[in-house]
Amino acid sequence: MGKSPEVVVDPSPFRDLLGMRIGKLQPGRAELELDISPTLMNFVGRLHGGVVATLIDMAGTLAGYCLPDSDETRSSVTLSLTVGFTGTATSGKVRAVGLKRGGGRKIYNSTVDVFDENDTLIATGQGTYRYT
Amino acid sequence: MGKSPEVVVDPSPFRDLLGMRIGKLQPGRAELELDISPTLMNFVGRLHGGVVATLIDMAGTLAGYCLPDSDETRSSVTLSLTVGFTGTATSGKVRAVGLKRGGGRKIYNSTVDVFDENDTLIATGQGTYRYT
Amino acid sequence: MGKSPEVVVDPSPFRDLLGMRIGKLQPGRAELELDISPTLMNFVGRLHGGVVATLIDMAGTLAGYCLPDSDETRSSVTLSLTVGFTGTATSGKVRAVGLKRGGGRKIYNSTVDVFDENDTLIATGQGTYRYT
Amino acid sequence: MGKSPEVVVDPSPFRDLLGMRIGKLQPGRAELELDISPTLMNFVGRLHGGVVATLIDMAGTLAGYCLPDSDETRSSVTLSLTVGFTGTATSGKVRAVGLKRGGGRKIYNSTVDVFDENDTLIATGQGTYRYT
Questions:
Q1: pLDDT in tens, B11-38
Q2: Could you tell me which residues of chain A have a Cβ less than 8 Å from any Cβ in chain B?
Q3: In terms of CB atoms within 10 Å, which of B1, B74, C73, D113 comes out highest?
Q4: CB contact under 8 A, B17 and A40
Q5: Tens of pLDDT, residues D46-60
Q6: What is the distance in angstroms between the Cα of B129 and the nearest Cα belonging to chain A?
Q7: What is the model's pTM?
Q8: Could you list the residue range(s) of the whole structural domain that residue A121 is in?
Q9: What ipTM was assigned to the predicted interfaces of this complex?
Q10: What's the CATH code of the domain at D86?
Q11: How many CB pairs under 8 A join A and C?
Q12: What ranges make up the beta strands (E) of chain B?
């Protein structure tokens, strides 16, 4: 059942630039994490909303990457993305948990929550994706 | 009328990391641009959706930065952000144009279009912001 | 702890037009339900997406209506709303469950799931609201 | 070029319940209008946000209905929808203008503005649609 972190995900230069680490990947679920560093800050010294949006996009995408009852993986592109900001983070780790919530053979939807290192929600979002 | 590019905007480390340049800022309108570089790519060699989301967030924010009939500027935080992807870009410049579409003393809304260097729309989004 | 369904909610003509019933209201949580009727259909005989969007808006709003540790209630207006459609419904009941996910004294965020009568998710959305 | 209002659109019970009228339909553009009536109000006597969301959904859908250089029309389903509220309306007509902003053979994106009868923007939104 489920996939372990050994699932191979294609390298992504932008993911590396932001220092995102892929955590546990399972069919329908993906975890990512990131250490807040000075380069990821906005003008008031908080984690930039664009970093949070990127985490949501990637966790939502990867929630559809592993397929159930199979070792197969599938890549996808983002059709639409939404982010609601509920807080901010200034230091430590942030963690995104993406859940695939529905979809068919070609299109799927995910919701994603982003937490600071005290497990306080700092953003919640959703995406619609198309398998390539 | 309008503000020139000499309007001072606070430095933002993440904006610098992505190489975003602030173009013309006017009351109700903001332009940003960015050169696509290898570090901004996703796993298939296209501009990462997170970069596009960041452009939309920033252009939408800055569309509310200069106030009409005044030299005053106001900073804001993002409450919510949406992105619809209509295309992709692999090289050259991308340009975001943000328009403030409504709002009051505390809250405002912007819509933003992102174009590749042939002026083809690659994404369109909207944001809701709160002045700080 | 929690509030019971006896919480008084102001009458809403559009809610009545759609036949929405307010279920259990608690601090941070709201349930609504609706019987699918012929007038709520789209051109292919399925529940119209606008009805689903309305359910999401109202459940997200009401998730912030009861305040914790208090009998006080607070009304709010919607700043932004998003809906991702994961399925459709053609008959029976639909049910929306809204959760307040964060926010402060003035602004709050909710996420909402909408289920058909077999508890299959047909849509998921989120909203940003401002207390009036 | 363009299509006239004589373009035939399938009947929709929910559109009728809300009293929406389809205005000019052209390839890439759709107009809808609606008279505000007491049944469409929220608890404070303003047009309900769900009505506005429905207008945006329908105008965005119909912006993709007429095809360029053809008399053909194509129906579609909504994948995702977003709404940003910039104002309210209490009486008179409201009008939604939807523009198809991009897309391919299967998926397309629209942005929609909603105006009160003084042409003040009351909401702006976007949708992602899939042709059926």
A1: 899 999 999 999 999 999 999 999 999 9
A2: 9-18, 38-44, 48-51, 53-54, 57-58, 75, 77-85
A3: D113
A4: yes
A5: 999 999 999 999 999
A6: 10
A7: 0.94
A8: 5-131
A9: 0.93
A10: 3.10.129.10
A11: 50
A12: 21-26, 29-35, 76-85, 93-103, 107-115, 121-131
